[in-house]
Known about the structure:
Layout (H helix, E strand, L loop, with lengths): L2 H18 L11 H8 L3 H13 L3 E4 L3 E4 L9 E6 L10 H17 L3 E6 L5 H14 L4 E4 L8 H8 L4 E4 L9 E5 L1 H14 L5 E5 L5 H15 L10 E3 L10 H5 L6 E4 L2 H13 L9 E3 L16 E3 L2 H17 L10 E4 L2 E3 L12
Parallel strand pairs: 3-4, 3-5, 5-6, 6-7, 7-13, 8-9, 8-10, 10-11
Antiparallel strand pairs: 1-2, 12-14
Helix pairs in contact: 1-3, 2-3, 4-11, 7-8
Amino acid sequence: MNKTAQFSDIKKSIVKYIGKKQIGxxxxxxxxxxxxxxxxxxxxxxHRAISSLVSEGILEAKRGSGTFVSSPNREKSLTVGIIMPxxxxxxxxxxxxxxxxxxxxxxVLNQHNLRGIVCRIREGNVExxxxxxxxxxxxxxxxxxxxxxxxxxxxxxxxxxEKNHIPVVLIDNFAPRRNFNGVATNNYQGGRLxxxxxxxxxxxxxxxxxxxxxGFAVExxxxxxxxxxxxxxxKLMPENILRIATExxxxxxxxxxxxxxxxxxxxxxxxxxxxxxxxYFREKNISIPNEISVIGFDDNEISxxxxxxxxxxxQPAFKIGARASESLMKLISGVPDENKEIxxxxxxxxxxxxxxxxxxxxxx
Length: 364
């Protein structure tokens, strides 16, 4: 069955189900999983169909309570699509960061009597998933987006958004050579702060830990980190660029960290990655920061729960979301930019020094 047709059929099936079960105005409809079972559809398709019916005013979503049948006379409000990236297991892009971004977005939307539909991209073919999700939301009536997208700059989603003149503000990952507004942390400066901090403590044998996620933000962060090391005549060696996706990947680092010449400091590209290395170092009886210093990026909740407390670079996540929403409001209202140029807003990060970094041992 054609995907668009299937999506449309599921929407109709939900409406028929509501009528058949005589679920009246103001009454709560069954949860997504129950509807998925009743209608023989995936929970993801049910979720998107419900989001579409909410945007059309047929259903009404109430935070913390569920989804209800709307009053026929209820005033419809503009719905904004909020698209966030997948979280790859325990070493992913940081659920706390995206939660704070969404909170900032919704705070501004609420001030304008608007609402947002939050959708998270599934793992797998991220580029295709982003494209299909945006098309589905547009088919359901959503016309404006705040999105954190990871598609390559030549990916189909960018041409689709440009060709159809879809108002969109990007979060964190700008699209090179594309005409979109965006808001992000100054990731280059954030990477520099991490590198400069480790260098200032006297570290010279330094490693960096990455996940499978790439994109403009991560690349900028790495670039700033490398430049900070280079200015101190320290080269980030290829063998010290550690890439992880699953728990089993850590075993490949045994020979490195169990040797006498192991790195004395590690920059984790996200706090979630730092937390995974805490676990790994604890298993190997490697003491933080006595034997190795660890610095993260984000300043999410976990950084204040680890022992020792994690030194990290703070991203202004809530502010990023709020500024992105404000930028979208200007696009929606047709307020022109003074310089008629694409507006890319960079917000400054902050180094938060805690307990996980210290000077290396003498002779290291």
